[in-house]
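MYND-type domain-containing protein (Trametes pubescens), 604 aa
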Amino acid sequence: MCADGALSVLAPLIQLGGKYSTSGLPPDTQVHVIMKANCIAACAYLRKFKATPERVSAAELDAQRLTSPDGALRAPDAVNCILHAIDYANQAACMQFIRRVVLLVGATFRDLTERIGLDVWSFKQYAPLWHAVERCEYELSVKKYLEEWRKKPVVLFPAKVCASPGCFGCLEGKDQWEPCCGNCAWDRKPWYCSSTCRAKEWENHRASCKPPRAMWPVKLPSSVAPDWNMRDLFIRKLVPNGPVEQIEVVPKDVVNTLDTRNGTVVWVWDMPSLCVPGETVQCVLKRYTHLLGRDTYGRPCIDGALLELAPLLDRHYGGNLKYSAAAPRVITHALDIIMKAHSLAAYAYFLKYTATPDRQRGAADDAQHFPLPAALRADDATVDSLIYAADHANFAACMQFISPAVLLAGGAFRDLAEYLGLDVWSGIKRYAPLWFALEWANRQTFDTKFPAGWVLDMREYLTAQAVCLAPGCDQSPGQKEDKQWCRGTCAWDCKPWYCSDKCRRKDWENHLQYCTPPRVIAVEIPPPCVTVDQSTRDVLFRDKLYPEGVSEVTQVEIMPDDANELDARNGTIQEEWELPSPYVFGETVKVVLKNYGPRHPNYK
């Protein structure tokens, strides 16, 4: 078969762009001819894909003699041949012009994608082709089941109760049964007493609603090597950067309306049937939506998420912020949503920091498809990503939005600093809200794991302290409520009390070195791609966190209710306001403008 010769003849009838057209279909008399041309073109490209080395040489000679008038029809290698084949096969499947070559092309491509770890259903605009393959396998499985039943009679409808959990409605008649409308095997197909139960159970049944594999695995030609290059090529060419609209003919058999893979119907009309003269079929315009324009097959799309969050992220905060006596503009009604965005951004950059080499390859591919603004672009996939994660986590901590993502990013940064032999409290003062959040989390975790002190109030029975801990004071309050407990983050088993607030302030300098919670959260080990050396230390603290010309840090924060005003690490309050709480309706919060002083001289 001269594949290139056939394609040259079919060129006037083949329309590669027709599947994305929303203007309508060609005249009814031409559609049938065009669908036949598409099937022949799919067969030609499939033969070129499966060609042996001898046939490849002959095909190259044909391609030189028969130059295609349309450059879009040229396929330089076997992989591009199969991509062209599924294009034409899908156009025929959209019009329900199902022929054997259409099913063979779909099954071949499905087996090829499975070998490189992809799912064909991720290429949503080809859903009619995948549905045709599954429907064919379902019909083959039903035929096989009926043949076995003729040889040895079995119960055709074994279930006599509704398959929906918690429903025991009896199925008294065949007309009342509601079977699953999917392509699951006939002998395992669930039945329901109503469409309501069927819709309720669909979320649990969806994963198993597929037919048994009835077609033999396709043997790939020797010229095709399933590898990362092929995977990247499929993702780049088959996943569009936006929603796809295409015209389809509704199949005559039952359509599972619960299956979201069927797309969204935009417009419906009737047209003459392509196969049966005198009959009409229902034609629809469907829209297939891809998440962020691409599907990452279970892998988090970091750059895609950051690109969507970019309008909510503002990294121009921190150093040299000056506000008037009026209320700061950062406290708005949308602060809750903005803080959620910063929390998600911190987690996204944390995933970049901890990415394995395989995921770094996928992240690099995402970065090409989703170009980020300069303010969100991390030059280094490790240290820069961790700094960006800490930036967004600290901004959320300033507004008292303490989420697991904030603690995760802050803990990773703190642990890396400890591996480098640095003190975060002295080196990075502008992250003080983040460090306080980590200490608060450690204390909360300790109190949860060891709650006996709070339940039994063991502090009353600690023999180590019977009187006020302040030097030179031996007073003991008569009432439990009169005791002034330390307001720091130390654990309950070593938290001291005083007879008055004056004694608490007097003893703070002595108690300061002990006022830290026990480390109960596991230390995060830096990923293998991070080199713990002086170079990383310089990049982390000198070159990135303190831009040139910035010597002091001034930032707006929401003061927590249990803040220890004696702790110098809290910075100096320059201005303060009482504003409505952005999180709890009807309450107020104390918003302050803090100054954390100059940098430590060892970190210049």
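Residues 137 and 215 are 7 Å apart (CA to CA). Residues 16-24, 315-327, 452-456, 458-463 have pLDDT under 50 and may be disordered. ok done for today
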